[in-house]
Fold each of these.
Amino acid sequence: MSRPLSEQLESTHIQRPATEFYWAVIDATTVPSRFGRIRNEQLGYLFEQSLPLPIEEVHAIYARIGKSKRFVACGIERTRLNDEIQCEGCDVQVFTPLALPEWMDELAAAIPPARFNLLTGTFEPSGQRATRRRLARELMAAALILIGVLVVGFERRIAAAEESANAVEVQRAALLQEILAESTTPAGLPLDVRLTAELRTLRQTRTNDEPAVELMDASNRLTTLLNRWPKDVHLRTQSLSVTADSMTLRGLLESVESSQAFVDALGEIESWRVPQPSVRSTRDGIDMELRLLAAKDTLP
Amino acid sequence: MTARRALLPGVIIAVLGLTMTVQLHRLGESRSEADQAAVRLFSARSDVQEIRALRNRQARIAEHKRPEQDVIARVHAAMAEAGLPVSRHFKSLRPESDAPTPEAAQFRRQSVSVALQSMDAPALGRFLAVWRSANPLWTPTRIELVHAQSKGAEDLYDVSIIFSAIYLAGLSSTPQATQL
């Protein structure tokens, strides 16, 4: 037959009058702290000043007063605490004072006695300790799973990004290979270099701008000359030479007057000047050499 | 034991933080690489578009020096198209010069001299017209006609034409498949 609930609660939660504990209000404003945290060990040294025995023989617990650097210290001899919780059939889970001492100021007294559960550290009940350890293990496992999930997630995203970059590069390489198939650039060079070379070559050779170097087309000049050729004068052409800056005509005429007809006809060609021809009489007729000179602004 | 217990959450948080930092860094690099690849693709597309547009234009300057054989083939083709028997009218072809242009250092001027024989003026006109449309890069820069001395050659001439082309200096002079 099980025990009544009140009896069970009594056996798991022991409360003792405040007079059975050591009490002190500790001012820790001078204690150096890291990130605002003051270790129990540091508070213990301060508490020891109020104790009739060494702190090593006392199990103490500390509660901060509000948000100040003042603490209420509550302690009990280790041996006594051990005796209290070792009673047969007891399963003590909580060991607290019934109340705080009356001499404490209003702020300190506002701390509930339940905050001073002395079953901590080495006095922590084995069940609680096991639960806490299990919880810690579960949290650690959850953390590891979380890390694993994050790593997998990141790896997938990284792989996707790399795949995307590779696909784009493949697409780009195919595009360049296609356009450079017709190129005259050396096939052994990297595609980027060939692309730059091809573009530079085409820009230099196929631009719509006026080319840096222009060649004079002699056939145009020959056409111009022939268009102005006097039709009513017979000339047995011996030679005709057309260059960038001159056109030289040599042939046999029937009379000296005919040479003037050539000078008049060819002298009408724009941007060309016709000096007097060289004429001399030969056995076969009148040998004429006529030289047309291009005006300077017509030369390329 | 207590110290180890207190250290463990810190270690876990540190591992978590380190993992996050490393993975975020790697992800950032991968995404940056993907972005750069996309930019390079965009740039390549733009270049390819420009290349296509430029290739559709008429070349005004040759990309390479042309070998003698190539020019002979062009002369023969033009003569055939103009209806001039090559065996009767073609005499010779020789390289004339190959020198940098004084106007621009990146260009060179290549000239060849073509000798034709027994041609009358209309035949020469046909040949030059065909040549001009088929070989825009090769400009006849000098034309000389000398009356043929042979019997019965009243209106026939021996013709010497210098064809010149400008090409890019510094590129390989090996002839390629590209038609000029």
Amino acid sequence: MKREYQNSVFFKKEDKKYYFIGIGFIFLLCGITTHLLGSLEYLYLGDQDEVTWFYHEMMMCCVISSIAIVLIFFMVRKNRLNKRLAFAIDKSGQGIWLNSFVNLKMIFIPFSMLEIDIVHASIIFKYKHAFYCNSRGRMVVKKGKKEKISYQLINEDQFDRFVKIYNLMSDQDKKVDFDKAEINQRISKYSIKHLKGIGTLLSIIGIVMITYNLFPLALDSVQLNTNNVVKYQNLKLNHTYSTSKADFKVNKAYVARNEKNQKIVIFNISFKEKSQDDTFNIFSNLYISSDKNILQEQGTGAKPPVRHSDMVMSNNHPTAIMNQLTNEQYCNKDLSASGGTGTYNVVFKLSDFKNKDYLVYTGDNFEVHPKSYEEKPTYILKFNPNRLEVLQ
Amino acid sequence: MKKITLVLLTMMSILLESGIVLADTNSLYDLHPIQTKNFYDDSEIEYKVTGYQYLKDPVPLTDNKARYLIIHCEANTSDLSKNSSDSIINSDVCKVYDCGHEAVEIEDVVPQKVMKKQPLKNVKSINKVKPNKIYKFDYGVIVYPYDKIILKINPYNFQGLDSQKIIIHAPDSKNGIVLNSMDSLADYAQGGFNK
């Protein structure tokens, strides 16, 4: 059986407005998923850095896979229907050829076994049997089925011509009752208006959700930085960091292990108090965090310095750390020997597997927005514990 | 021959190390006398600081690395007029700074029961003094001996003596974090406080 067509009906070049709504839904779905993962991460925060890391990775996977889905969606839609043959009358006038969408194979349906009906805006091909050639060139019988093709997807003029020819060739009782104007009226009645606008809106909501959950800092830090409220910098040794109430300088930074074999970091820091504030408190101003977004997360996971409980391993001996910052009132002008200046060793416990941590100097508690702090700015100083000098 | 030399060297190093341990840890608790000029407060009570000493027992409960440091002081009321019987012994005779910061006073943290027993019995404020008497009293603080410890005598510049600083311990350290082995308290910092 030769595949020769006449009065072919092709699919139309697709309307781009359908892409918008599809992509919009994908972005929205992705945004909701990212938000749910973000909420899960928030629940498990704290000392469980591994869990945090895991959820970050999952969120990244989610975003990457959704981008992939969008691309695949585009490719599939583009290749699936665009200008392909939908159906045609056989040149011999014995039946029609119909695109079965199974490997884009055309199936032959004799007129005697076919019934065409138009319901709302869909063309329904109902057939008892169909025939097609398999890969070996043999004729195979296909079981009867209903195929539905939307009128909106096919070329209207070609279909108009097809119906006229079909009605001429088929029996009286099988003629198709087709009124172009009526169908167009039905379509405009049920079609969703402003598809492009809705799709764009959904996309924007989805993208904002993804961005907010993945990069909260990108939104907030810009806002914070403009007012000189928070400074994100790399930790520099022997550099004076200045706030409205104090100057401080990290003279030395060492990584070491305590007698329980936990990793610790020791900062030798000089302070100079500038204010006459009785409540000035260095101890509670310092933290380390493995998360840059410590302020946005109200200090979740921020670790204060350890007090005089740890011995550091030096030359394989557990040794006390001298001049350790242990007291909230250190460096207070009224209580210090040198009028508000001092050099102390500040000790923090580290997580073992991290290669990025932040030394945080903040003038107030994390529950308040940094803009409302009396002491400004807040410093978030990045350092790599693995690159610090190892204490001998 | 090699083996004998090695054994001898090992034995010598053990002996040397143990020798340093004994000498240093014990000397921490010695009494250190101080001789300074006397000074007078507004009530004409004469004061002098006579010495300081770390207590081996008791030790602070909060941290076994910390110690009680007692400053021995004397107050002489021979110049006090007979009518001023409501005078009190001034507690601002000295101050101790640990790591540049005013050290916590024993009275603020130690329970009254312990304060009533020796050697903390003399750490107290004396009220209603009588003329022509010598009162011995102590000023007590909690410090980490391996930190930089400074004793400031007459911190408020009472008459007769300019305020005077005595460095009780100046840490000897290369890295500013742990003491060098040559520091007198190197062994104490390396766990000698447990002995």
